[in-house]
Please model this.
Amino acid sequence: MRHFGRFEALPGSLDTPLALRYHGHQFRTYNPDLGDGRGFLFAQCRDDRGRLMDLGTKGSGTTPWSRAGDGRLTLKGAVREILATEMLEALGLHTSRTLSVIETGEKLQRGDEPSPTRSAVLVRLNHSHVRYGSFQRLAYHQNAGAMQRLVDYCHANLLGTGGGGAVALLDHAVTTAARLAAQFMAAGFVHGVLNTDNINITGECFDYGPWRFTPAWDPDFTAAYFDHQGLYSFGRQAEALQWNVFQLAGALRLIAPLEAIKPPLAAFADRYKAALATALLARLGVASRGEDADTALVKSIETGLVGTRMNPDRFWFDWRCGARRQASPADGLYDSADFAAFRDAVTAYDGAAPTHPYWADAAPCTMLIDDVEALWAPIAERDDWAPLHAKIAAIRRMGEAMR
Model:
């Protein structure tokens, strides 16, 4: 409570919390008035592999960059972040982790949920607190010296490269952004607010606001009720992350020549294609059989899921290791013309049957909006956390089966 509720300094770490100032594009509109408005970097440490671990808060109160906000987090928002990070970790995504949630006892007023509502403070773990918007701010102020120092810091402390300059940093960002976009697709996940201030330089997913898991493979499915144009819809997340990388490149132009940054940017499409095949094959639980075969399989999966509009979690569950293992409510869809190409393509990938008991369950573990609301209701109504703990155990069991 002293450290993760009142934020007394951890021994050997930061003496005082650090609230960062940054800029960013929000729904592609540039905003120079951003910063850590309801959280801060609380502590830093290194894991047993020598990687830097940043402990950041969410809901810890106002900072100089809060603008008109109260700096607080609703308890429901904290629960939603627990569920998002647990589910995405189990599915193999590079994501922040939720370390702690402490209820503060305050009553908050919010316009998008019944109020007054309960308040909490959350501590998350990332490998980096440095956002694309951190570079954008330095470019905005034409501070080339600080930009070079930030690039050097990232290489030395976050990427493990020890050096390499702005172009190497951009190349790394292209790879991790393409990987993240592909992992979103394989997970059926919609982040909701892929602004440049919500993307960090290590390519981890974090800052879970209006997220959703899509109930069907619908490219137009959105998570944020205010995303009226579908800018960050399920099917446009790769486009969004590519656009963000271009904004990072624009900022790095302050210390890097234009011709040098073009090759990494041009590589995004190919890296995304390769990452998508890797992510979808991992979700299916099969090994690669070469680029041509993998491309055909990926296309057939998307054709089947789009055409039938079935729940993707059910599909991945039913076809684990490349073959049907037991009867399913979706068997009629698998026999349809939409899945004809998949039925042909997947025969070459049929592997040994999975052995974890999870794969013999009647249904997959899911995290659709109805699941989230069903878990929040007993907490809100009678302070009953047992269903949430049971769900986390089920998610972790699924993660064990996926591995």
Remarks:
- The longest strand covers residues 97-108.
